[in-house]
Fold these 2 entries.
Entry 1:
Amino acid sequence: MQVTLQTIIGGISLGAVYALVALGFSLVYRTMGLVNFAHGNVVTVGAYLASTFYLSTKLPFALAMIVAIAVTGVIGLVIERVLRPLENKDFDLMLIGTIGFGIVLDALIIMIWGATGRAVPSPVAGAPIELFGLRIRTYDLVVLAIAALATVLLVLFLSRTKRGAAMQAVAMDHEAATAVGINVGRSNAIAFMVGAGLAALAGGLVGPLLYVSPTLGGALGIKGFAAAILGGFGSIPGAVVGGLAIGVLDSFAAGHFQGYSELVTFLVFTAIIMIRPTGVFGERTVNRA
Amino acid sequence: MKARTTMKAETLSVEGLTVHYGGVCAVRDVSFEVPAGEAVGVIGANGAGKTSTLKAVMGLVPRQAGALRFGDLDLSKVAARDMVRHGVGYVPEGRHVFAGLSVEKNLLLGAYAKPWKAATRQTLGEMYELFPVLGEMRGRLAGALSGGQQQMLAIGRALMSRPRLLLLDEPSMGLSPKLISEILVVLQRLRAEGLSMLLVEQNAKLTFEATSTCLVVENGIVAMTGPVSKLRHDPRVRRIYLGL
Amino acid sequence: MRIKIAVVAGLGVLAWLLPYTIDSYAIHVVNVIIIFALLAVGLGLAMGVAGQVNLAQVAFFGVGAYATAILTTRAGLGFWFAAVLAIVITVVIGLLVGTPALRVQSHYLGIVTLGLALAFTNWVTNAQIAGGAEGISAIPAPELPGVDLSSEYLFYYLELIVFALALAFGLFVVRTGLGRRMRAMRDDSLAAGALGAEVPLLRMTAFLLASVYGGVAGVLYAGLIRFVAPESFGIANMFLLLGMVIIGGRQSLIGCVTGAVALYLVRELLSDHPTYAQIGYGAVVVLVVVFAPTGLAGIPPRLRALRRSSGTAARLQPFQAYETDVSSDDATILAIDGISKHFRGLKALDDVSLSVATGEIRGIVGPNGSGKTTLFNVISGLYKPTAGRVEFGGRDMTNVTPYRLSRAGLSRTFQNLRLFGDLTVRENVLVALDRSRTLDSWQYVLAPWLVSARDRRLRAEAGAVLDRFGLVEFAGQAPKALPYGIQRRVEIARAVAARPGLLLLDEPAAGLNGEEVRQLGEMVRSIRDSGVTVVLIEHNMGLVMSLCEKVTVLAGGRIIAEGTPAHVAATPAVIEAYLGDVMEIPTEATR
């Protein structure tokens, strides 16, 4: 029991990061109807930017993160602008276009930061907290708190602001959205920017948890995407639940299958998707002839 | 709603409107006018080019036009998303409400181009007065409404911007006769308040009730045009569109 | 044709002479390029032709290579025996990886296949038997009496022969029935199913083909490099492969090969600056999807289209009536009993029962949203009814898949036209004409002459169908570029080409002008006279009145009247519901 609980706790902080990555996927999907395959690479960029500002320029961790988020937001804007001709036209082509961007970003990362990785020391000092015999690292709590805050802010943005409502309206019906005066292109650009910002947040936070390397985002991106699908693609609570679930699944797999954890994680994920393709919070859509 | 006393006399005039979709000509050289405060109908069969005409006026599809003016304004230079800022509201075919958002959000988004302040709140109140059922359902997701309620919502959403010209695309689609008469009542009320309307419909009888002048569109061209009082007695119209 | 043969022969000679002109490093590069070209053809078949987003192609490659390595070094099998086993293993894995395609498509399938590919690299990196991160070295060279295949020059000829056969086979598949059916499924899986294409089986076939090509490439790779390690089969190479296919043009196998050659050469030229090369091809992928979505292969047809645009326009010919076949008996062909269909509480159909006699033309009318199309969708197997029974041709056909119904003699058109947009008009008809079973695709390997003979026969039949419907001049065109009225006719021709006993037409007159409606009436009557029962949904009351023997009126998901057109038109309930009370024309005085 104790071991199980410890495994769950171990999975939750990484799960929170997956949730943030999944939120980025879901936000872009919810507001544009697009799957951004470059999202994982943007996570890597964010991780490198945050760690660079934190380690080299000695900015405080929080400030380094904010700078990283701003820079990746601009990358998001660029991707959206280039692919805009395909918007609302060819979903699959646009998806491949984002893969192309991912390839470019990957190469840029290696050019700028080299092929070897770097370790980022934890920005919060202090021994792990002991609670009922469970060990919880303080940084894990920080990650959880930030992820929770980001989720709440995102939910508030989508549900309470005019811009948030308009962005969702664009994905539901871009023509009707245009007719009420919404600038669809600008809405999509903002969606991409916020999505990229979330990726940078996830990347920055995961730095001290994992080793920052060019392949970091690939793994995080795929698991984050899996999390988004598991929760029900496009659903904000789904992204959070899916992220935590993948994190815990990962942690269990690592505990029981050591090196084979990825294999087990993806096999379980595939099985779940085949049983319930629409995910936990997903809605079944009616196939119209 | 309050009478629109501050209205400028604005006529929508369309000359030589043509729409192509990838080599296929959907609308060819269509011309008509919607004088200020008048209601004009466009009837025709499925695929005759009615919806394309309306979308072209709105700027939602690429268009070529000799002239497209609303009062003093050259609409051919105005992007679709800015039409609402020039007083043109649009009710799309098949309703197209924002299904995953609440009824109230849908209505508020209708006033997207305006600040969501007191004036907009007041307009919202007027909408709930005009469509009491929307008031009862304000917290529900628009996608959960019935077809008739969604149509009311789509009209309400377009009215939220306080347009001076309303473009309506098949508001009767898929509605029962009882609901169609309710829609008709709303349209007649709006017309009495002096709102200019361009109504595209398959249902000729509804159109004849709601408008004063009508175009009959066939194969992308205007086959006939005239006052409703005349078209109603035209033997061809009676046979093809009224089924008499 | 003669030019084509000459070009192929010329290329063959050049390929045969190539080793004499290049050094040992260059021949190595060429050998690797051929392997990538094989992989690209496999990916092109799955993704470009069949529309299955397969991001595990590089894992299939890895399975083939690793299986060869393990079987030769660990189990001590001979190379050729190991090679055959390796391909079998790859196919089994390929089919397993493809199973999710039965449930999910598009980006969902992409992530699942990508995840499974990662699972594969994860396994080989850790498994003792696969040599872990170091991989497996000292794989024996394939032995062939009298030929030393450890020489890269001689290995080239082995690769060349395998590649030529594989490419020829791929092209053969694409240009005959199986490929046509897969392309139809890619363009519109719903319509393909309704025309008898076994969609689940075709999706698995796509993965089968992809894994065969992946496995063969893997075997050749193991024999060539004689060393396997995890990084050769990672995500980076998957995306490189994807880039090859997209840049070359995914819908054309030749394009895929061109893309593979071009991209690999670029990578090789920039091998001292791999990151620049990567930026380069990533950027090219982006530019291609935005500016030339059909890739390099799409450029020649585009140029040709530009040149030809001023040619004479094709014209629609009149429909030629069928011979009358008056052998109709009075049996019931379609019997619907108590069908209900609910969508999340909405009763789209509520206890609907009706029966249609063989040889009848039945009209179904009703206001928009009254459940007419839902009824068609239930009859044709697209929807499972919530309750009730559908009997077709005397057999219970409730919950039978659309393709089985199609094979049992049911055919339909769709309200919003579902033509296969990237197939020509002729191919649209061919898909319907081809009644062979996908399971018979073993003939492609064991008896290809049967396949070609059948295809020739089908082409002749397609010519006859197009001729009858006056569409001959449009045969080579893509339907999406045709005027609406002609597209409608193509869809009817396609539905009739499936030789149905029962034809369902969903608003066939929608969007047609008076003359076209008259022609449609003639066409439908003649189709019926040839022995096909017709049920049509229609709003054009004039057409319904003149054409149908019996009319069923739906309103709110229920049948409110049934009988002869005249009888139905006079029923008060119909006037109330369909014609409606607003429809009463008030005299001028009431206004």
Entry 2:
Amino acid sequence: MKKVYINSIASISPQKTYDNSRFLDEIINYNDTVIFAQDPDYKQYIPPAAARRMAKGIKMGVVASKIAMDEAGIETVDAIITGTGMGCMIDSEKFVSAIIDNNEQYLTPTSFIQSTHNTVAGQIALGMECKAYNFTYVHSAISVESALLDAKMQLENDEAEHILVGGVEELGEHTTKVHRAINHIKPEAVTISGVLDSKTEGAVFSEGANFFVVSNEKTKSCYAELVAVETFNTLQKEKVSEAIENFLKENNLKIDDIDLVVFGNNGDVDFDGYYNKLSEGIFSKTQQVFYKHLVGENNTVSAFGVWLASKILKTQAVPEIVKLNEINTSEFKTVLCYNQYRGQNHSLVLLRKC
Amino acid sequence: MSELKEELKGKIIEQLNLEDVSVADIADDDALFGDGLGLDSIDALELIVMLDKDYGIRLSDPKEGKKIFESVQVMADYIQEHRTK
């Protein structure tokens, strides 16, 4: 089987992460319950005629994919695989609202066409005239991990050489209200430094797009080797340590071999215990980082964790703002990302320095 | 009539999300499709729905749209003659 490499990355998030030459050197301090992505200059990447029908999620996905493709130095890929938990919410809300407001009359096509979960992958393919495999995984908080796993298997079996993989979420006004009503969004505004001290349920909600070009050949721009991906729909808190040890064992590794662990803590008092148990348990002697205080919570934000891990492996530097404990490792060779959302849909992504 | 033409230009810009285009940029006789504003078939569907919803004009034959949507001037003339609301 061939090895799989992350040859380029791109991130559009509530922080200014769209410029790959920078690495969290300027932090935007939020004090809110919902945070929006920082916009790159979309017009620089998308022709006005195409952009006018695109809601924010599509624009973010298209631009992030272009940044990733540019860095990888390729013009097309053998597959485009995306993940999204909620899909194109803005156009979905627009279309459904129109049905209700107009008593099922006068339905216009644009928002309907743009509202499908596969719209982002479809628009990317149209833009690069790529008629290859095009697929979108819609699986809550493991959507993007499912996309990565699909890409990894195709590359390992040499069914493809280069695959564009990414995750996208956008905030829709009505959906955000619903999430607020069911207490999935924090009742009080929190600052980025106060997220983990929050004593309330829910998370700071957000949006963003994170894309990667993964290949079975290492290029100069390579960030990391994608060693393994595993997902679990359900996992009891008491069983997470065991699952991680088994996952590492399958990859001929032990806990001590992990130089850095990337956690998905979001400050939800009901579910951060999953991370705390690991942080104080099997990873108590491992350097730990987190990122959701900077970029919030959404169904594919775990891809930002992979982005962060890739950046750390390539630069061998850890920004102070993401450090979770006092341990400082001198060299980062193997990094593990662990994420879960509301105690379900757990994921493990193992990366190695390339 | 002049008011209707300004109203139509505003609606076209808003409903078709014509970013960077203002009412003043659209001349009454500018072609809406092709080399003019560059609208396409999806826009034509949006305009058909707009005629029905805002002016009570239901096009029984979508091919009629090709002529009716030639320019803002032609659209305004047609609406003036056929509107039910």
